[in-house]
Amino acid sequence: MKLAILMTNTDESDFANARPKDGEKFTVLVQEQRPDWNCAVFSVKDGEFPVDVQAFDGVIITGSPASVHDDEAWVSRLFELIREMDAAEVPVFGACFGHQAIAMALGGSVGRNPEGWVHGFAMTDSVGELPFGDRPAQVGLYASHIEQVAEVPEGAEVVASGPGCPVGGYMKGRHIFTTQYHPEMTDGFIADLVEFTAEYVGDEVTAEARESLKHRADRDAFGRQIVEFFEWAREGKSF
Q1: How many C-alpha atoms does 122 have within 13 Å on its Cβ side?
Q2: pLDDT tier, 237 (very low <50, low <70, confident <90, very high otherwise)
Q3: Which of 99, 145, 182, 228 is catalytic?
């Protein structure tokens, strides 16, 4: 299996540059489950896009501190590519910004969470059953967002919810699967991120995030969902 990872993270701070980029994080997450899978990283936030996205078995769209409402050329181009992939039913997994970008590109909507930041550890609830693999009734994931999907695209179904976040994840057809959360983040990274963003998000949010990190994300469980989605989506398809 060969996946394209579309990296949208615009953070070029010293903090970010001292740590693995999101393309590497998602590659590690995938290869923890399927060591023989290959991942090619494209920094779409820098205008680097695949020449032929259908040459890949699937696509991952990462998270980002950028907003899907930003008036940036790369965001518009990503929306166009999402619509092309949807029409061609290319299997796509989106996380956080990716989850929101897919919704916006396909006619859904994204807005500010009225309850404010979701930051640190969050226990998410599974909604219904996935048509691939098994999953627990609840999955712990790391989060850092204040915007979220308000309306899913036509034909999409909500498959997860979380604190203050009714659309914690959704599916569309056999080819789109998303999460508002960050399965790629490690325990160490989220702990560092909470400290790095303390001044930005404020004392109260930071204190709650620190307390939440007494819990650990179900990294293995969600990593398994991602690879099983791609295997299920690819059945009967040729690329």
Answers
A1: 25
A2: low
A3: 182
